[in-house]
Amino acid sequence: MAQSGTKIAAVRETRKGATIYKTNERPGTRAQVKYVRVSAYKAREVLDLIRGKHVVDADEILQFVERDIAIIVRKALASAVANATNNDGQDPETLFVSACYADEGPTLKRWRPRARGRATRIRKRTCHITIIVSRLGENELRIRAERDARSGRVAGGTAGRASRRSRVARSRQAEGHDHDHDHDHDHDEVLDTDVEIEVDEVSVDDADEATETDTETVADEATEADAAVEADEPEAVDDTGSPDDVEPADAETDEKDND
Asked: Contact at 8 Å (CB) between 110 and 122?
């Protein structure tokens, strides 16, 4: 097959085994959603936000866009990344949105009754959304890796499922301790615990001494208060009278008895 100098964008095989070289198709892995019940104009406003972005950044943008069409576009982006990972063996962390566009689909015609027997047309627009993801260049990948290393950001995201599995496996291997020998840091923790216990015991003894001192002070103050009260009290007065007053009364009684 003679090939012109035009760059070949894609190679497809038909059911009969024939090879088709497409020169008018944009390179990359694509995902398409057809007959979406929204106008192409509204879909293009959201697609303009993610064009040329890394797939992780594009997913974050679509997650916070306050438009209903962003939900469908986000699903299409996830499908394109999955196609590139499973069908073409691409690493999802190296992909970016190379192209995204919305074509107009068929329009559904409806009628709305109006005044004086008239009717107006209702156009229910549809569109076909296409998202193409491609691999970043080596220079761009190196710049992105350096930027992520400086910022301390972990590469990958919701689109990088394969890389996430590898990170989970590495973390599980790092956390697994199957050996039984003692560690030096365990001994240090025991020493720190003993020091804390001794400090607590000293603090408890100080608290007991302070409590005993306070008790003695309160007892001395109570004794002094009782002594002051006894000094201020007047002497008790005997209401029965003195013995001298009683004797004359007895003498008079004896004289009457003698009479």
From this structure: yes
CATH domain 28-171 topology: Ribosomal Protein L22; Chain A (3.90.470)
Listed in sequence order, the residues at least 6 apart from 25 whose beta carbon sits closer than 8 Å to its beta carbon are 9, 10
Residues ≥6 apart with Cβ < 8 Å to 22: 8, 9, 10, 11, 12
What's the whole-model pTM score? 0.52
Listed by start position, the domains of the chain span 28-171
pLDDT digit string, tens, across residues 74-109: 999 999 999 999 988 889 999 999 999 999 999 999
